[in-house]
Amino acid sequence: MKLDQVCFRTNHLSPSWTLDAYRQVGGYQVLENILNNKLKPESIIEQIKNSALRGRGGAGFPTGLKWSFMPRRLPGDKYIVCNSDEGEPGTCKDRDILRFNPHQVIEGMIIAGYTIGAQTGYNYIRGEFFEPIERFEAALEEAREAGYLGKDLLGSGFNFQLHTHVGAGAYICGEETALLESLEGKKGQPRYKPPFPAGYGLYGRPTTINNTESLASIPVILQHGADWFHELGTPNNGGSKIFCMTGHVNKPGNYEVPLGTPFAELLELAGGVRNGHQLKAVIPGGSSTPVVPAEIMMGLDMSYDGIAKARSMLGAGSVIVMDDSTCMVKALQRIAYFYYEESCGQCTPCREGTGWLYRVVKRIEDGQGKQEDLDRLVDVAENINGNTICALGDAAAAPVVSFIKHFRDEFQYHIDHGRCMDNTA
Amino acid sequence: MTEMVLTGPKQTLFTEQLRLALDKWIAKYPRGRAQSAVIPCLHILQEANGGWLSRAIMDALAEYLSISSISVYEVATFYSMFELEPVGKHKISLCTNISCMLCGSEEILEHLQQRLAIKPGETTADGLFTLKEVECLGACVGAPMLLMDKQYHEYLTKEKIDALIDEVQS
C-alpha cells in the first residue's frame, strides 16, 4: 500500500513544513509552469475533473466541477476561500496538513485563484488551532518573500493576495455559507442556497470554497497528472485520502492511503482494535455519518462509493472505531448533545429538534426511557431531516436513525432494564 | 500593562500597540469591510484584557470598526472562545466529544475537577484556573486532549494532568 503520496508527501523530511522542504518534493514547480506558460484555466479545470478529485471536507462533490461554476470572466472581485474550520468530531487531518505541509495549501490556493479568476484568497482556520495558524502564517511569509504572492507573480501579470482568517469556536462555520458569514464578521448562520457561492459568495461576489485537503491535492495532481492521481484511487474516487483513525485502536493516527483501501487493511495499519477487545461498530466519516456495525464494515472499501454501499458516508474520512465495551446509548447521547450545543438556532426543526433528541436519548441512558421513546426519536429525527437551511439538521438526524436501526436491542434493553447490557460500560 | 483607553476619539482608543495589532488585521479585508476583522480583533482584545471581554471593550471595538455595538455583541456571544465574564489566569478546555470519550475523557474530567476542586464553568479560588468542557477541538488522534491557553496537550493521563497543574502552581 502506498502511503503519504499527496498531502503528507513532505512527512519524511525534517522539518517538513519549510519552503526548502516543499521545494525538495517539487513544490511550486507546477505554479511556476502555469505562470511562465500562461496555461489556460480551462485546461487546468479539465485535468482536475479527470483526476476524479472529490471534496475532502465531507460532501465529496467533484472539485473540478465546482471550479467550473465560477464566472471567471465576470469583472470585479472574486474570491477563493480555504475551509480549515475543522470541527466535525473525529476529524483532525487539516490540522496536520497545516502543521506539516502548509506550502502545499498555499500553492493549491494560488493555482485555484488563477484558475477561477480570483485575486484574493482567505484561509479560514479555526481559532483554537494556534500552532497551525502560526505555521501557516510563517509559510505565507516565506511564500511572499519568494515572490509567489503579491503583484504580477513571476512577471505573469497575475496578482494574488492570500490571508489567514481565524474563527472563534463554532462547528457551524464549517458549513460553507456560515463560514462566509463569519468571514464577513457576523454570526455563523448559514445562508439559503441558491444562490450558491459561485454566484453570490463573500461580500456578495463569486466565491469558491474548498477544504484544506482538497486544495493541498491540487499541486500534486497537476505535477504527476490527472491519470496518475485517478489511478491511485478507484474509478470516480481519485487519489488518496487521509483517514483519522480514532477511538478504540492501538495506534490512533492520521493515515494517508489510496481511496479504495479495504477497511480491514486500514484498521491493521492503525494497530487493530484495542487489545483484548472485538470490533463492535464504526462511524466511518465523522459523527454526522451513519454508524456501521462491525460485520458490515469489515467488508467495505474506504472510498466514497464503497462506504455508500452500507448507506453511510465517507465524509471527511474520520473513522471512529468502537469496540465491544462501548455502550451505544451513551455514545449516541454524546453525539446528540454535540448537535444540540452547536445548532445555530436559525431553523426551528434543528433548534428545537436537536434538544428533543438529546433529552430523549439522555433519559434512556439515565434509565428513565419510555416504551414509545425509540419511535419518538426516529420521528423527531425524520422531522428535522431535510427541513433546515443547512445540513447540520441532517447531520443531527443521521446518527440517531442509524444507531437505533442497527442497535435497537441495546436501546430497548436500556428502556426495559434501566441499564446497559452486561458486556458494555 | 498600559491601561486600555475605551472612550474618546478612534485614533486614541485602546493602546498604540493594540491599535497596530488591530490595524494589521483590518488591512487584510477590502476597503469598507472592517467588520470582517471583528473576530480576530476580539481575540486580541480578550487576550490583552486577561482573557475576557467587557461591554466597554466591545463598545470601543464597535466604535473603532465603525459598526454598531450589537454587531460586536452578537459575535462575542455566538462563538465559544469568547468570555464575557472574568476568567482564571489559565483556561483549561477539555474535549469530551466522542473520540475523546472513547479514550477516557470522563476520567480525565473527574480528575481535573478533583485536583482543582471546581466544576466545568468555574474558576479556582486563587484565580489560577478556569475549567471548561468543550466540543471537538480537532486533535482526535491524540485523545483524550485539552487546550490550555494556546497549547494542545494530547494523550492525557492523570499523571500528565498532575504534572501540568503542578507546573503552573509552582
From TrEMBL, chain A:
What are the protein's GO molecular function terms?
Answer: 4 iron, 4 sulfur cluster binding; FMN binding; metal ion binding; NAD binding; NADH dehydrogenase (ubiquinone) activity; NADH dehydrogenase activity; quinone binding
Q: What is its EC number?
A: 7.1.1.-
Known cofactor(s) = FMN; [4Fe-4S] cluster
Pfam family example for this protein?
Answer: Complex1_51K
Q: Report the transmembrane regions from the record.
A: none
Enzyme class, first EC level, given as a word: translocase
Keywords, A to Z, come to: 4Fe-4S, Flavoprotein, FMN, Iron, Iron-sulfur, Metal-binding, NAD, Quinone, Translocase
What this protein catalyses is: a quinone + NADH + 5 H(+)(in) = a quinol + NAD(+) + 4 H(+)(out)
Residue intervals of the NADH-ubiquinone oxidoreductase 51kDa subunit iron-sulphur binding domain: 329-374
Q: Which GO terms describe its biological process?
A: cellular respiration
Tell me, in a sentence or two, what this protein's role is: NDH-1 shuttles electrons from NADH, via FMN and iron-sulfur (Fe-S) centers, to quinones in the respiratory chain.
NCBIfam families per UniProt: nuoF_fam, PRK13596.1
Q: Read off the PANTHER family from this record.
A: NADH DEHYDROGENASE [UBIQUINONE] FLAVOPROTEIN 1, MITOCHONDRIAL, NADH-UBIQUINONE OXIDOREDUCTASE FLAVOPROTEIN 1 NDUFV1
**Family statement:** Belongs to the complex I 51 kDa subunit family.
Q: What is this protein called?
A: NADH-quinone oxidoreductase subunit F
From TrEMBL, chain B:
What is its cofactor? [2Fe-2S] cluster
Could you give a GO molecular-function term held by this entry? inorganic cation transmembrane transporter activity
Residues that coordinate or bind [2Fe-2S] cluster: 95, 100, 136, 140
Q: How is the cofactor bound?
A: Binds 1 [2Fe-2S] cluster.
> Which PROSITE patterns does the entry link to?
COMPLEX1_24K (PS01099)
* Name of one Pfam family that matches: 2Fe-2S_thioredx
Q: Which GO terms describe its biological process?
A: inorganic cation transmembrane transport
Check the record and name the InterPro entries matching this protein.
NuoE-like, NuoE_dom, NuoE_N, Thioredoxin-like_sf
What the entry lists under CDD domains is as follows: TRX_Fd_NuoE
Report the GO terms under cellular component.
catalytic complex; membrane protein complex; organelle envelope; organelle membrane
Q: Which UniProt keywords apply?
A: 2Fe-2S, Iron, Iron-sulfur, Metal-binding, NAD, Translocase
Q: Which reaction does it catalyse?
A: a quinone + NADH + 5 H(+)(in) = a quinol + NAD(+) + 4 H(+)(out)
As for family, the record states: Belongs to the complex I 24 kDa subunit family.
What name is this protein filed under? NADH-quinone oxidoreductase subunit E
Per the UniProt record, the source organism is Methylophaga sulfidovorans
